[in-house]
Every structure is written in structure tokens, then in C-alpha cells.
Design a protein that fits this description.
The protein is an alpha/beta fold. It has a domain of about 60 residues: Alpha-Beta Plaits (2-Layer Sandwich). The strands form three sheets. It has a six-stranded mixed beta sheet with strand order 6-7-8-3-9-10, sandwiched between helices. A hairpin with a 2-residue loop joins strand 4 and strand 5. The chain is elongated and about 75 Å long. Bound molecules: adenosine-5'-triphosphate.
Length: about 325
């Protein structure tokens, strides 16, 4: 049985984890649908890894319930965990194993029936761009290829849910692009949760984002909604012959203007009033030497910084 499109693959309610007197995760709710990629964001110590370890059955919650494709993870851990693939922050890669040996071991550990193990290994290698790397030793692979192997072991048993803890950390920009497109592809067939510190990664790869702070979910919405609510709210304006800031601020729809340099200005619009066209028209009419007008793309970063500004010392 596999989850129908749009059906919930993960449902967690009131998820809580205490370490002694410290509550690392404070009763959070989380839901993921088939085919969705959820980005998990938060400053260091926010509780992301703790949450992922609980969702994957590697750490017992202090309270709350977790359902994986309708199976209670705490009551039926073996059946529920068979639906999950997990790439931990530091995957245990045995350097002296070949890719084939390692993935075969992973298939057996995930209880893939013996007769289907070979086929499962070949399929996961193909999906992760490792078709020609089966005989290579893990210790000789580049960091990017090691990460592909880490993802391949997480999907070798065809899980409904794939959970990836900081999958692009330590990779170079080319490798990051490759792993991101692999994650996007996985999102078509599986539900994916990934944690990351890279905000543009969430906008590039995820359908939805949850921001965790001090063990609470402080933000949760779709990337599309985030872009709608924040998009068009500010522009970077370049003028060779700029008027005074007051003159710019007097244009209808403009909330405030900051000079970034003598010729570059950040112009914030009033809510639901995109004044781009009015600005351009005024610049042309008054011969201000307009050479740039571009939307400010820091939307997720803005939200993140606003919500997680006050750091607590652990
Ligand atoms: P990072 O981005 O740095 O990986 P994170 O969001 O994954 O951070 P967690 O690793 O989940 O955060 O840690 C959340 C809190 O729980 C931190 O305050 C951490 O010190 C604490 N914590 C985590 N594991 C343990 C443990 N085994 N024993 C005691 N405290 C722990």
C-alpha cells in the first residue's frame, strides 16, 4: 500500500522532546503530503535535527504522536520505518566499501526481500546518477558523490517519505545544483523533508517551509504564498540624477526610501500597492537617469531574520 497523491504521508501532533530540564521541541504539529518538499529552517539549536530524529524513529519523543502513511510510528515502528528513508547530518559511510556493497547492505537493513535487492540497488543508483559508480570505493569518491550515495541509501527501499538533514552542506556550487535537482526530482515521487541553513535553497527546491525557533514552529506556509505576500513589496532603484529622498517618498504608494549609495535606493511600497510603474514614469518625466529598477529578492531571509532575531544562549 502506498499513499495516494495528496494524502498525508507524515502527520505529527504535539511533538515534544525534553533533554533533562531543557525542552528542545515544544509540542509542534507537522503535516506532509505525497509529492511535497518541505523545507525545515531554523537557527542552530532550534530543534531541527531532534525533530527529524523523532520523525524517523531514531529518537523517542517525550510526548505527541507520529503517523507515517497512517501507521502509528510509536505503536508499529517496524512497519512505519519501512516507509521512511533518512539521510542523517553525518551519514555513516564505510570508506572501504564499494558503492554496490554499501547500497546492498542498506537494502538488506531496510528489509528489501533478498530476490529484489539487486534491482533495488540498480534503481537507486540510476536515480542518483551513480549508474557507473558501483565498483568505486566510498573513500575515493568526491563529497558530492558521497552525498549521492547517502541519498541513494535513503531511497533504496522505495520509501514514501525521504528525510534529509542538511543535504548540501560542504558541497561546491556545482554539486549543490546537482543535489538540489535530485531532491526536486525525488519530490515528484516521494514526500521530502530537508533541513538547511541556505535560504535560497528552500525557495529553489521546496513547496512549503516551516521555520523552527527555540523548539516552536514560528512560521509555516507555502513558498508560493510567501512570494505572494512579500513579492513586489520593495525595489532597488538606480538613478544617475536622483532627486531628494523626500521627493521620491512623496510618490503615491511609497512607504519609505533608503539610500544604499548616492545613485542606488531601496524603495519600500505600501502593502498591496506596487508602485513600480509610477516610479518609472516619474523618473522618465523628470529625467532622473533611471538605469535600474529591480524587485528586492530577500523575502524568505526577511521573514527568517524577523522571526528568529533574538537568540538565546543555550
Ligand atoms: P543545528 O542547526 O545546529 O544542527 P538543530 O536545529 O538541528 O541545530 P538540535 O540539534 O535539534 O538543533 O538541538 C536542539 C536543542 O536540543 C539544542 O539546545 C541542543 O543543545 C539540545 N540537544 C540536542 N540533542 C541533545 C542531547 N542528546 N542531549 C542534550 N541536549 C540535546
Amino acid at each position: 500500500m502506498s499513499a495516494e497523491p495528496g494524502a498525508a504521508t507524515i502527520e505529527a501532533r504535539g511533538l515534544t522532546r525534553k533533554f533533562g530540564a531543557h525542552t528542545a521541541v515544544k509540542g509542534i504539529d507537522l503535516e506532509l503530503k505525497r509529492g511535497e518538499v518541505l523545507g525545515f529552517l531554523g537557527p542552530n539549536g532550534a530543534g531541527k535535527t531532534t525533530t527529524m530524529q523523532m520523525l524517523t524513529g531514531n529518537l523517542a519523543p517525550t510526548g505527541g504522536a507520529i503517523n507515517i502513511c497512517g501507521i502509528d510510528l510509536l505503536e508499529a515502528p517496524v512497519a512505519a520505518k519501512a516507509r521512511i528513508g533518512y539521510l542523517p547530518e553525518h551519514p555513516p559511510l564505510y570508506r572501504e566499501f564499494t558503492v554496490d556493497e554499501y547500497l546492498l547492505l542498506a537494502a538488506k537493513l531496510h528489509r528489501v526481500p533478498r530476490a529484489r535487492c539487486r534491482e533495488a540497488v540498480e534503481t537507486s543508483k540510476r536515480r542518483c546518477g551513480l549508474a557507473n559508480s558501483g565498483a568505486k570505493l566510498l573513500g575515493t569518491l568526491s563529497r558530492g558523490f558521497q552525498q549521492r550515495v547517502g541519498i541513494a541509501q535513503a531511497i533504496v527501499h522505495g520509501p514514501d517519505v525521504v528525510i534529509l538533514d542538511e543535504p548540501t552542506v560542504g558541497l561546491d556550487p556545482h554539486q549543490i545544483r546537482e543535489i538540489r535537482s535530485l531532491i526536486r526530482e525525488l519530490g515528484g515521487k516521494h514526500s521530502v523533508i530537508l533541513s538547511t541553513h541556505i535560504l535560497p535553497e528552500v525557495e529553489a527546491v521546496c513547496d512549503r517551509v516551516q521555520i523552527l525557533h527555540h523548539g516552536n514552529v514560528v512560521y509555516g506556509d507555502t513558498i508560493a504564498a510567501l512570494k505572494r505576500s512579500r513579492g513586489g513589496s520593495a525595489v532597488l532603484l538606480g538613478l544617475q540624477r536622483a532627486p531628494s529622498l523626500d521627493t521620491l517618498a512623496a510618490i503615491p504608494g511609497i512607504a519609505q526610501v533608503h539610500a544604499v549609495s548616492p545613485v542606488l535606493f531601496r524603495v519600500d511600497f505600501r502593502p498591496h500597492d506596487d508602485a513600480t510603474e509610477r516610479l518609472a514614469a516619474q523618473a522618465a518625466k523628470n529625467d532622473w537617469g533611471l538605469f535600474q529598477i529591480s524587485p528586492v529578492h530577500t523575502s524568505l531571509e526577511d521573514v527568517f531574520v524577523q522571526l528568529t532575531r533574538h537568540e538565546e544562549v543555550d
